[in-house]
Protein 1
Amino acid sequence: KEIERTDLDPNAYYNIKFYADYDLEDGTGIKREQLLLDTNFTTMPLASLGQLFWNTEAINIEQNKAEITIQLDEIKTDKRLIQIINQVQMQITDENGNEFETYELDVNQIKVNEAITISLQGLNSNTEYHYEIITTVKQGSVEETVNKEQTQTSFITRKKPAQVIIKNQFVTGDLIDFDVAVQDEDGSILLDY
């Protein structure tokens, strides 16, 4: 019979003792609560399992929205580490380090290696956003954040196009007079040409 324990703390020392009742049928009778095994072992520290490798990509980037796809790289990541993932968050910050949003990702989807797509709305145009995946694993009663590597960590939203505004239009005979103003919030007009 196999006994499996999944609640052992990492980097800990354990002792296993196995007791049984048995009868060898040698005329000496039943032996009760006899020690059959007495052995020690240690569990591995979580750090020995390496780090998580994430394939991440920002796609469909527009002025005020974007999507980020996330998928765990099962080839590079130790499968034992994948099995003890407890929580995954993606934190998004703007170029000044201000938090934009934090998303809880579905751990079950991650464990079966499904790609996850996060849709971001309400972004500012022409702004660099950074995103980081924060993962905690739990082994026994110990929970800790795991090191990770991401294929992509930032993207820049598209610029708003410049708008030409005609003001104070005045027309008489052979004279057309008007004022032109250009609103170019994101500096999309190239002035070097």
Protein 2
Amino acid sequence: VADQDQNPYRSQDASVAADVLIAMHAPQVTNRLNTFFKNLGSSNDPNDNRWRAIMPEYSQASQSIMRLVDAYHPSEAAPFLMKMLDLVSANGSGVTINGKKLWLSPQIGVAAMLLHVTGQSPADYGITKAQNYGNQWVVLGDQAEAQAAIKKLHTWWDVHGKAFEATQAASESSPKPPTPSVNHNPPSATSQQ
């Protein structure tokens, strides 16, 4: 879905790939998502191109990843997104659409993903999608409201984040399921006689 080498010509396949993976209900997908988020979390550079794969405004691949996260609940997602929340830029821009002031920034997009992953409503933080502005996540208001939403999310994480970190630690210490062996050389009809 997103582990493709940032090839923009393949992102149209992301939603189809997500449909197939969601229908599979395979534990290997959870393992792969955990590896994906763990690899992303190994970098502290917000300009790391790998992070763009999950930024909501960049591609259909990011939307497909969030669908997979919603279906499989990988334990690495919430701690990674919380880390990312502090590393991506809070700089953004204000726009007025239909008489409403809106503020958008990369940090607001990450906040919306984190809220989704933790089962919270972005609306409780004043975050919504701007339908007439590329369907991007925005804060209703200006930069002050954006900062208040991020502060509120940090306060929530201080109280509830340990549960997500404990889930992450438990998944790291649990035994991995065995990988099924595949016999590429099945016995021939003559060898069974």
